[in-house]
Amino acid sequence: MLDQDLTNWQDPCLTRQPTMLRAAVLVLLFLAILGGIIFLIMLADRPCGIQFGSIVIDTAAVAFYTFSRNRNDNQPFLLSCPVVRRQLPRLIRRHLGFLAILLIVETTALGLRPNLPARLITPSSATDPSPFAITVGCVFACLAIVQVLTNRSLLERAHLSAQINAADRRQ
Questions:
Q1: Which residues 6+ apart lie within 8 Å of 170 measured at CB?
Q2: Higher model confidence: residue 171 or residue 159?
Q3: Between vectors from CA 151 to CA 150 and to CA 152, what angle results, nearest 5°?
Q4: Which residue among 46, 60, 125, 151 is the one 20 to 30 A from 161 at the CA level?
């Protein structure tokens, strides 16, 4: 049955119009990013508070930027697309791997924090973050960007493969 669907296959991610449900999901993901930032601020002094806030922010941001168009030259990816659905288990496994790396890096950095010089962990003013916080935030952002770019690349390759297979079956 799946082979029959691919024979007459047109990329749903490019041919379907955006729906209100998709817009609502993307808005909820964006709000989850903001909520994660609030969690991060509120729970920063608690054990594992920074890690919990990071997990919420990373998961919402990666999902948002992986599946949204986010610029006119990027293809949106729909969860209803059969190509995307086949890749979801792989994307979830990859996300869990990235979260594990994120947690290991953050936990190690927070463990090293008491041994660092005061100038690295003390903010220069009441409103500025410390150099330590900036460094951890940059590592966090780099991991998220790498994950989004590799997720989008994986989905683009899967779509290209499905298009080639459909063209081969038509011939």
A1: 7
A2: 159
A3: 90
A4: 60
As a whole number of angstroms, the distance between CA 93 and CA 83 comes to 17
Separation between Cα atoms, residue 143 and residue 102, nearest integer Å: 7
Specify the amino acid at residue 38.
I
| CA-closest candidate to residue 57, choices 77, 33, 76 | 33
- The amino acid present at 1, given as its one-letter code, is M
- pLDDT at position 15 is 67
* Residue 80 predicted with pLDDT over 90: no
Q: What is the pLDDT of residues 112-127, one digit of tens each?
A: 888 988 888 888 777 7
Q: Which amino acid is at 30?
A: F
Tokens standing for 78?
A: 């729909």
